[in-house]
Amino acid sequence: MKLTIKRAALLKILSLAYEAVPVKSTEPAFVNYLIDISNENIEILASDGNITIKGVIPTTSDDVINSVPGKIQVPAKYLLDIMRKLEGEVVTISLIETSMLNIADDRSNFNLNTVAGEEYPDIDMNADAGEELEINGEDFKHLYDSTAFAVAVKGPKEVYYGVNINATDDKLMFTATDSYRLARRKINVSGNHHISFTVPVKALQLISHYEKLDKVKIKIDSHKALFFVDDLIISTRLYSGDFPNIDRIIPQVTPYRLSVDSKNFINAIERVTIVSVEKQFIVRLLCEKGHVEVSARSSSIGTSKEVLQNATFEGERFEINFNVQFVVDAIKALNTDRVSLAFAGESKAFLVQNGDPDNIQLITPIRSNSY
């Protein structure tokens, strides 16, 4: 096996694939790259057993100077570090005997121990029988940014750790919830689709951070989803379990409505929580005609209060407690100068809105004895 290639091209694929390499693993092969060179393609694969990334460079690419077929495993961290530190424009990697990989440019030379490529776990990267859809790259980022922050970071339900992707007819939705808040974004797509699946948020994060994301093609089967982005294929297992039906928990009648300047409101609620020392920064919102204020309290520190400027409230006198970070995240996801908080009642989940019915941010209030 031998490959002579422009360093920048190889470094790009190695860096992208490395996102799937675990910090530690019970499977020794998962800390390695699997490099597979055929007559047609150079493939770099990395996996943690749940998420797999495969980068592909055609042997006909202008970046490839010469290649000889072969397959080996090589320690991912060390190969990536070497590629980052080398200064030559062109590098050559070649297998010495059967267990050593030589990496060299015009001034440096390294030898890394290798493992036979045939010993790497078999990972299926095909989903030929499943349904597929295609998303514009900018739309994908909007869907991700509007929802991913709401996934759970702890709790017993695995499905809450991922983002649910649902395509029905010509509508595509991303939905995430940790059971205390919920975020959903919907867009129009071409085609007639009927799919629903939940994937780890990390897989979507990798795609959303991809530079110059043009389009994303998705294929799914009963066990996994494949995402195709340029020369990358990202495979991820699906989370099991039914995702909650959120339509039945979205309030239909909201007699209390507060309209605020997004930036001013965020600044105000973050200011009053300076006195909070609890893990959850809780703010009390008091609304009545001509007066809106936010306040916070800590038994060990003190109290704070601020009257909101340029706020408009509709409804009878109203009070509610909420998690500051949940509201800040929702407002940032809406990405507008003004937002409305729509309340069904003091103990019921409320909406943070920007006038777009396809972007839903729902938050559960907090019951607190501190006030």
What would you note in describing this structure?
This protein is α+β, with helices and mostly antiparallel strands. The chain folds into three domains: 2-119, DNA Polymerase III, Chain A, domain 2, CATH 3.10.150; 132-247, DNA Polymerase III, subunit A, domain 2 (DNA Polymerase III, Chain A, domain 2); 250-363, Box (Proliferating Cell Nuclear Antigen). The protein has six helices and 25 strands. It has helices spanning 7-18, 76-85, 137-145, 201-208, 262-272, 324-334; strands at 2-6, 32-37, 41-47, 51-58, 64-68, 70-75, 90-96, 100-104, 109-113, 115-116, 132-136, 162-177, 181-200, 215-220, 224-229, 232-237, 256-261, 282-288, 291-298, 302-307, 312-314, 318-323, 338-343, 350-353, 359-363. The strands form four sheets. It has a nine-stranded antiparallel sheet. The protein starts with a strand and ends in an 8-residue tail after the last strand. The mean pLDDT is 93.
